[in-house]
Amino acid sequence: MEPADFEARAAELLGAGAHGYFAGGAGDELTLRDNVEAWRRIALAPRVLVDVSERDTSVTVLGRRRPHPFVVAPMAYQRSAHEDAEIGTARAAAATGSTFVLSSQTSTDPRAVAAAGGAADRWMQLYVFRDRGLTDDLVQAAREGSFEALVITVDFPFGGWRDRDRRSGYVVDHAPYVQLSGTPLTPAERHAMHDPTLTWDDIAGFGEASGLPIVLKGVLGPADAERAVQVGAAGIVVSNHGGRQLDTVLSGAAALPAVVDAVAGRIDVLVDGGVRRGWDAAKALALGADAVMVGRPVLWGLACEGSDGARRVLEQLVTEFDSTLGLLGCPRAEDLDASYVVAPA
Ligand SMILES: Cc1cc2nc3c(=O)[nH]c(=O)nc-3n(C[C@H](O)[C@H](O)[C@H](O)COP(=O)(O)O)c2cc1C
């Protein structure tokens, strides 16, 4: 089975409720679809007669050299996809040199995920919960598990309006690590855990308390990107949360150029949403991103074949990216720039 087939197979394997939770987006899912389409609309503009016999897919993110630009996006409740859960995706990331981001809503204790990932690159995604004790516990686990950065998700004051979950009435079939009561929560109860009073004033405190670099995930505009620089973030993720929060917001691909302009190289810029092929990542780097996060494709691999499936999805993305550099006539990923793409008029 090819990675492209994983999505269809995962839909068969997972029940309608779980599949709808993983696949779905907010409202009419216009942003969900646009995330994928926006990369497809950008054309690649190759150069010819360049020596591409050797290619270098590596990038530098948060001051560290990484073998390629793929980062596994934080995704909640992975045990509902497969029993390998976060340990499976962390191992797949480690095996492929991908940076792994563990969700705050992990099904697995972060320390166990860290042990499974060994020396591989891992970041902890942080939701700021009303119960700050839960958030502090995650920060503590991040430090104990040698997580390299905190990815604070800033586009989730509360959950988006998700029609599929409302229709299915899906209740996640297990309690995640942070939910100490141990009883699975309804979507409304889950969303109520988040602290909607969180503001820019709170951000620097997380960096100080943890001693870890902060990446803000869910920035879509240049003014917020500037504020992220001002509060001392080390990076941002241009993201609309995989189309799961507010429908009809702009895609990461569309938002990226203005954010890159505003940031002007002062901090790292990642982008996510709809990255499905290696050449999508090349387009993102050409538009100024330092790296890309990939979400659902990894989950579909996990759902179908556990850790091996997630690894196969990541391997294919890396291979496609490498071949894109060659066929584009740009053998070094870090030399990609806007001259290699033509954005839609
Ligand atoms: C099932 C699912 C769960 C997610 N859970 C989280 C989460 O816990 N924290 C977070 O910051 N983002 C979460 N996201 C958003 C992803 O990190 C990422 O922004 C998005 O999935 C990227 O889009 P893609 O799936 O099209 O690649 C989730 C996405 C999905 C699909």
From TrEMBL:
Its cofactor is FMN. The keyword Flavoprotein applies. The active site is at H241. One of its GO terms (molecular function) is FMN binding. GO terms for cellular component: cytoplasm. Coiled coil: none annotated. Glyoxylate binds at Y21, Y127, R162, H241, R244. FMN binds at residues 74-76, 103, 125, 153, 217, 239, 272-276, 295-296. Residues 1-345 form the FMN hydroxy acid dehydrogenase domain. Keywords: Flavoprotein, FMN, Oxidoreductase. It comes from the Bacteria. Belongs to the FMN-dependent alpha-hydroxy acid dehydrogenase family. PANTHER family: FMN-DEPENDENT ALPHA-HYDROXY ACID DEHYDROGENASE PB1A11.03, S -2-HYDROXY-ACID OXIDASE-RELATED. This is Dehydrogenase, FMN-dependent. It comes from Aeromicrobium marinum DSM 15272. The lineage of its organism: Bacteria, Bacillati, Actinomycetota, Actinomycetes, Propionibacteriales.
